[in-house]
């Protein structure tokens, strides 16, 4: 198991002794790294040689260290006062989640990701920008590493920066905002991979395309989405260097429709 994971521990019990009544299975001396959702299971009567299955629902705290063994101390009792104790160790180990890592050999770089549960299913989706051999791309992945449905990956101008997510048009849906063209454009996309066509997107900001240090600039162009004036709508803030001088910085603020904020 891994830190932060929820698990179910299934127990198969057999009464190898005499008939028993009011059989109860309890977790005792609970480890501090363990979150227990049901620590007491009542099985009722069990005849001699009867078999019974039961389950504990558990969680592993996210701060549990790797290499740690979580002890499960299981105590089984019945109405006669008979008590049996068992110890099970749960080793905490590192493993990749299913579908990860993704290996792409044609990338010049991949941005840091933005992670969000966009569909409310309890599993996070992940978005990254990439400069591939055939141009700029924005990828949207499910939690298992598969591409999101729709028009993913999105083809964009070379040199895209890291994406940001927010509801920029107050339609109740998230949009993805990203700087492309090594600082020339700011684009807005719906999460089905189609461009936002309302408003003034994409916006040409012209912070400099293909300057001699272009390969370093995408890290400067991560959009920040915030409600600057407390009017209930997000603004888009962009900062970066100007390619002509590499000493002059600019900060742009846009309304959610792609027009300049004033």
TrEMBL record:
SUPFAM superfamilies, sorted: Integrin alpha N-terminal domain
Keyword field: Signal
Keyword Signal: yes
InterPro entries named among the record's database cross-references: FG-GAP, Integrin_alpha_N
Keyword Signal included in the entry's annotation: yes
Name of the featured protein: VCBS repeat-containing protein
UniProt source species: marine sediment metagenome
